[in-house]
């Protein structure tokens, strides 16, 4: 039988194999991250009809080459263009990830690891990052709970939407600062009510509160009192401080001259009782326990007292019930401090030693102390202040008193903030120039509150056209620790992002972010030696190099990951069609070999005729 016949058959088979490779490439032209293959041919063994002989120097005869007849062709190798980077296809899906570089994603079916360039992922029902086509979990490195950093250890499934990751815990505020300008001509600062500054903060459960602070100018225009007025919860309810002084020192003194006017048109004092016309609105005897004794003390402000007076129009007795707080409010209102009862009670006055007040007997007594003294000794109070005068400088026509009296300062719970008169810069707290912080002692209320350290170093007192800009902010103002200690409410996860190095971060609606893990990659010394397993998967072989179980950071080899994109197939259709043409012609030529060989055989058989 003619050898050419079998050579033609071998050529047909080999070109058919090449066509199979081309067909597979074209079929996968739109397969995600598909790597095209190519085939190379090699000749089959040759039949030697005469061995080669060497030259004979003695006879001068030359050598003869061997005579060999080839027996056809075979497939030499099928190579994968595995390192050829496919083009990027934008999808907009944040879980579609493309690797630029030579590395591979590591995925697992629960039993063994596989490798893929297909980054089409999703989050399954258990919260794991997984392949959309197979459900195999994406492997990576977990976060060290102690350091909060990635621990590059044996790869494990990335469970990015676990119950623990869905929320970010609340945290109590521990640091804050006040900054901005206090203008000494700001009418709010110089007024009775002062300049209000609100500090919003959180407790350990994430509940928000508002601390209302007030700045007031002292007699020295370079000094200002700062006091905590009240604390409100998120519903606007005022917290009961339980008598605790949470901010600064108790009964600090601010010396500032002023005047208080008594409303002589509507009010009168008589025998320790304050009347509004005929109506009894305050009675010291009813307000104090132990009235008239050295142990007289103000009752609870919620205590209800029965006040009785005679209506001059009807001559009938009238009885009303008022709390101690109602009566204190009425006294403050008579002296022009409606709505600011505590501020009135903290005013400091020089109690007169004579009826006209020429010689102060007790300098700098608070209004609260005066009321206490009057309740302890009503008789001596009448001698001290006049028959119808139980508070300083009540107008007494007999001695020509006016309806005004001087104040020399006020008591407050808080601190004094000072500014340098030459530069306007912050100059210390409570007379100590080096002190810049004050502790807001919320922990005294127990529960989930933490103390808050408030810094004032960035404040100044300069001309700002009569407008103060001072404000309070949660968190540290240290440049190296900006925002630290600001506290937060409980946060719900609102998004996930994958960085170029494969680190996965979650963002929460409380403004926080958290590192959830890092996608690990595998690199091989000979990636072309990987074995295809279908479903865009590869497995390691002896010729590809082993996977160590840990993997590498994708950026270690100069690669990176891109989200919202997938790697396309690297099949080049123009090259494939060209190869298909040459393959077709090669197949046709080999078929002609068989045809011609058959014709020759036919002529041979016809010789017998």
Principal-axis shape: rod-shaped
Number of domains: 4
Structural class: alpha+beta
Report low-confidence residues grouped into runs of 5 or more. Answer: 380-390, 392-400
Q: Largest sheet, if any?
A: 9 strands, antiparallel
- Overall average pLDDT: 88
Query: End-to-end span in angstroms?
Result: 20 Å
Number of strand segments = 41
Estimate what percentage of residues fall within beta strands: 35-45%
* Helix content, binned percent: 10-25%
Continuous helix count: 8
Radius of gyration, in angstroms, nearest whole number: 47 Å
Highlighted features:
9-stranded antiparallel beta sheet, 4 domains, 41 strands, alpha+beta, 37% strand, 609 residues
Structure description:
- The protein is an alpha+beta fold and 609 residues long.
- The protein folds into 4 domains: 3-51 and 67-83 and 571-608, no CATH class; 109-169 and 491-567, no CATH class; 175-254 and 412-474, no CATH class; 263-402, no CATH class.
- Strands 7, 8, 11, 12, 13, 34, 35, 36 and 37 form a 9-stranded antiparallel sheet that branches.
- Strand 28 and strand 29 form a beta hairpin.
- Helix 1 (3-27) packs antiparallel against helix 8.
- It is rod-shaped and about 165 Å long.
- Mean pLDDT is 88; it is low at 380-390 and 392-400.
């Amino acid at each position: 039988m003619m050898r050419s016949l079998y050579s033609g058959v071998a050529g047909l088979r080999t070109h058919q194999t090449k066509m199979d490779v081309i067909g597979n490439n074209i079929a996968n032209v739109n397969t995600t991250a598909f790597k095209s293959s190519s085939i190379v041919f090699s000749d089959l063994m040759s039949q030697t009809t005469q061995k080669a002989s060497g030259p004979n120097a003695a006879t001068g005869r030359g050598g003869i080459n061997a005579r060999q007849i080839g027996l056809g062709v075979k497939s030499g190798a099928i190579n994968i263009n595995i390192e050829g980077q496919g083009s990027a296809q934008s999808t907009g899906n944040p879980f579609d990830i493309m690797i630029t570089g030579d590395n591979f994603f590591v995925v697992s079916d629960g039993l063994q690891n596989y490798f893929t360039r297909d980054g089409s992922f999703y989050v399954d029902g258990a919260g794991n990052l997984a392949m959309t086509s197979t459900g195999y979990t994406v492997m990576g490195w977990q976060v060290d709970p102690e350091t909060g950093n990635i621990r590059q250890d044996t790869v494990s499934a990335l469970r990015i939407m676990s119950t623990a990751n869905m929320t970010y815990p609340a945290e109590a505020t521990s640091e804050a600062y006040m900054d901005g300008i206090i203008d000494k001509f700001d009418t709010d600062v110089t007024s009775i009510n002062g300049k209000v500054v609100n500090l919003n903060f959180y407790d350990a459960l994430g509940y928000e509160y508002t601390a209302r602070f007030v700045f007031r100018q002292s007699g020295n225009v370079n000094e200002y009192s700062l006091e905590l007025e009240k604390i409100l919860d998120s519903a606007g309810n005022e917290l009961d401080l339980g008598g605790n002084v949470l901010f600064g020192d108790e009964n600090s003194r601010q010396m500032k001259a002023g005047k208080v006017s008594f409303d002589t048109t509507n009010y009168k004092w008589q025998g320790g009782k304050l009347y509004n016309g005929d109506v009894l609105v305050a009675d010291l005897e009813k307000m104090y326990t132990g009235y008239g004794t050295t142990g007289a003390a103000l009752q609870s402000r919620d205590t209800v007292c029965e006040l009785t007076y005679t209506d001059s129009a009807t001559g009938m007795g009238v009885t009303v019930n008022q709390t101690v707080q109602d009566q204190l409010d009425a006294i403050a209102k008579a002296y022009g401090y409606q709505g600011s009862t505590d501020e009135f009670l903290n005013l400091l006055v020089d109690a007169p030693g004579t009826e006209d007040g020429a010689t102060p007997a007790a300098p700098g007594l608070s209004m609260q102390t005066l009321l206490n003294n009057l309740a302890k000794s009503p008789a001596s109070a009448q001698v001290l202040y006049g028959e119808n005068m139980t508070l300083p400088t009540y107008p007494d026509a007999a001695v020509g008193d006016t309806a005004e009296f001087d104040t020399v300062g006020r008591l407050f719970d808080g601190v004094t903030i000072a500014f340098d008169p030459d530069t306007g810069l912050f100059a210390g707290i409570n007379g100590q120039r080096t002190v810049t912080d004050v502790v807001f002692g919320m922990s005294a209320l127990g529960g989930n509150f933490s103390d808050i350290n408030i810094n004032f170093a960035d404040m100044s007192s300069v001309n700002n056209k009569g407008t103060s800009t001072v404000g309070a902010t949660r968190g540290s103002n240290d440049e190296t620790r900006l925002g630290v200690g600001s506290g937060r409410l409980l946060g719900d996860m609102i998004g996930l992002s994958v960085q170029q190095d494969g680190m996965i971060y979650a963002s929460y609606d409380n403004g926080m972010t958290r590192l959830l893990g890092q996608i690990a990659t595998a690199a091989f010394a000979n990636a072309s030696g990987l074995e295809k397993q279908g479903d865009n998967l590869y497995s390691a072989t002896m010729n590809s190099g082993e996977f160590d179980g840990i993997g590498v950071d994708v950026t270690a080899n100069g690669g990176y990951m891109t989200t919202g994109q997938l790697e396309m197939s690297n099949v080049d259709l123009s090259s494939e069609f060209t190869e298909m043409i040459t393959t077709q012609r090669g197949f046709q030529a080999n078929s002609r070999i068989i045809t011609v060989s058959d014709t020759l055989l036919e002529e041979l058989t016809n010789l017998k005729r």
